[in-house]
Every structure is written in C-alpha cells, then in structure tokens.
C-alpha cells in the first residue's frame, strides 16, 4: 500500500485535531506537524468538503472535527482524499477479469482490500490520539512473524 504525502499530512492534522480541546488554525496545525501551510490549507478544505471537518471564522475560529474522533476512521480520511482504499489501475478488484494462469490474482486483490479495510476501518482518530491501538492491530504488531 502506498500513501500519498497528502494523505499522510491529512492524517497527521486530523490526529492533532482529535487531541485538541478547541478549534485549531491552519498555522497551528502546520507548526505542530511541520506541514507546509498552503498545502495543508488545501487538504483541510478537501476534508471539510468531505464532511470530516468543520471550519469556524472569527477570533475563536479554526478547524475542528465534524464528528467525534471515535467516529472517524483512518479509512474515512483516506477515502475523502483518494477514493477507494485498494484498486488496480483505477478499478475495484471485483471488477477485474484475468484469464489463464493470472486468474487467481483477482482473489489476491480482493483479499488485500479486505485486510486493509479491517485495519484502516478499525483504527479511529480516537485510537491515534490516545496512542491505544485496537486489539486487532496490537495483535499484528506483537506478532511480526505473521507478516511474512
């Protein structure tokens, strides 16, 4: 899986907002996570249009999460910026057709997407902000031999 800088920056900014007790400005988020200000501003606008953030003007203004941190998964943030979690050449795995010896690849891509979803939908901003991963992720981290 390859995550773009845009998604990485978005997740870092969202983690800051999940841990915050008040709205945060672009400047505050940019400084806290060392993200280029103009680039972050564009990303936050996309997240707002995607329904994950709210913005507020004024002296107490800034960005805040549109839902509680426990209601926003890592997958939600990725989808808001990049669309589907796993695709092959822009297609959903179940829409692919392979022939001959390559036919089983479709099943591999479907299984890969299912595995990604288990992790990315199971980890919320609340988990990240509290530095407490759900048991399914802790089990994967604790057993690296299962990765190979």
Structure commentary:
This protein has 148 residues and is mainly α. It has one domain: Arc Repressor Mutant, subunit A (Orthogonal Bundle). It has 7 helices and 2 strands. The chain has helices at residues 5-19, 26-33, 37-49, 74-82, 105-122, 125-130, 135-142, and strands at residues 53-56, 62-65. A two-stranded antiparallel sheet has the order 1-2. A hairpin with a 5-residue loop joins strand 1 and strand 2 (62-65). Helix 2 (26-33) packs across helix 3 (37-49). The mean pLDDT is 89.
The helix tally amounts to 7
List the strand order in the largest sheet: 1-2
Question: Looking at this structure, what is the CATH superfamily?
Answer: Winged helix-like DNA-binding domain superfamily/Winged helix DNA-binding domain
Q: What is the CATH topology classification name?
A: Arc Repressor Mutant, subunit A
CATH class: Mainly Alpha
Q: Helix coverage percent of residues?
A: 40-55%
Strand content: 5-15%
Assigned CATH architecture: Orthogonal Bundle
Molecular shape: globular
Uncertain parts: none
Order of helices and strands: HHHEEHHHH
Radius of gyration: 18 Å
Protein structure class: mainly alpha
Q: How many domain modules? A: 1
Question: How many strands appear in the DSSP assignment?
Answer: 2
